[in-house]
Design brief:
By secondary structure, the chain is α/β, with parallel strands linked by helices. 33% of the residues lie in helices and 27% in strands. The protein has ten helices and 13 strands. A six-stranded mixed sheet has the order 5-6-7-3-8-9, with helices on both faces. Strands 11-12-10-13 form a four-stranded antiparallel sheet, with helices on one face.
């Protein structure tokens, strides 16, 4: 049984179609990543899954059940807009949320998660005294305490320092090992590439990519060369067979034109600059994202319209 089945769902707000005929399935026990530009429909889709919004058309099933009210008891939700009772202490707030959602005492679970996310020393502090990153970790714990079967995380790593982000990542992986299904949205392509079992890209309300990272990259083939050369960008410009150059600082990514021979590109390259690194790779998720939703893609769409 899939954890989530979305079938031909559409959601509009006045004249704006936020989600347009979206269908997807989220396998149970997986980490499923949503990517897409701001305003693409990611958050609207997440809010429909947790029953904050209802589709205008289509159907959403959770663990095979199409009755939306039944899902509230087993969903944990971290919204993009963080919101906590600022005058409450950390421990009191988490125990209140946990008992409200689960109907049982959660003191031991709260203490364990505070220890794990390095907040035990702030348990008696009021929320209003915490940093943004600490508040975010508290709200993450609040979503976990009821022991949900389905955890929805909207930009869980936004604003976190690397240590805190690593702690959240580790917690998410542990939850998956316990059988929890996790759906998260992110603007960090490295997070989507390394953490998620499946990736969905929404663009202008429509699904444009859906599958494993490998299956998505297979659609584009090995058409990207990564080059390290002392001259940097100036050493790789104006090469035959290269459609676009992306400067990453110490490394340059060259996207080949269709049918171009990488060896011919290398031969042309070494006549322009000394080369210390050269590899043919499949495009990164970041590059695929830019091909679909970046400025160059926008220009091409306008030119063909």
């Amino acid at each position: 049984m899939d954890a989530v089945e979305i079938s031909h769902v559409t959601k509009t707000f006045a004249s704006v179609t936020a989600v347009d005929d979206l269908s997807l399935t989220v396998p149970q026990g997986s980490i499923y990543g949503f990517i897409g530009p701001n305003g693409s429909g990611k958050t609207t889709t997440l809010r429909m899954i947790v029953n904050i919004f209802y589709p205008d058309r289509g159907e959403i099933r959770l663990f095979g059940d199409r009755r939306p009210e039944t899902g509230r008891d087993f969903i944990g939700y971290l919204p993009e807009e963080r919101g906590l009772y600022r005058k409450m202490t950390v421990q009191a707030l988490l125990e209140f949320y946990g008992e409200l959602r689960s109907g049982r005492g959660v003191e031991a679970e709260v203490a364990s998660w505070l220890e794990r996310l390095e907040l035990a020393g702030r348990a008696s502090d009021k929320i209003e005294t915490l940093s943004k990153g600490m508040s975010q970790k508290v709200q993450f714990i609040a979503a976990l305490i009821p022991e949900p079967k389905l955890l929805i995380l909207d930009e869980p790593f936004s604003g976190l320092d690397p240590v805190s982000a690593d702690a959240i990542r580790s917690a998410i992986l542990d939850l998956r090992r316990r059988g929890v299904t996790v759906i998260l949205s992110t603007h960090d392509m490295a997070v989507a590439e390394t953490l998620c079992d499946y990736i969905l890209m929404i663009f202008r309300g429509r699904k444009v990519l859906d599958g494993t990272l490998a299956s998505i990259q297979d659609r584009y083939g090995e058409d990207t060369i990564r080059v390290t050369a002392p001259g940097g960008l100036s050493g790789v410009e104006h090469l035959p067979g290269v459609e676009r150059v992306r400067d990453l600082g110490q490394v340059q990514e060259l996207r080949l034109t269709r049918g171009a021979d990488p060896q011919e590109v290398l031969r042309a390259l070494v006549t322009q600059a000394p080369v210390t690194g050269f590899s043919l790779v499949r495009p990164s998720l970041h590059d695929i994202f830019l091909r679909i939703a970046g400025p160059a893609a926008e220009e091409a769409n306008h030119a063909s319209a």
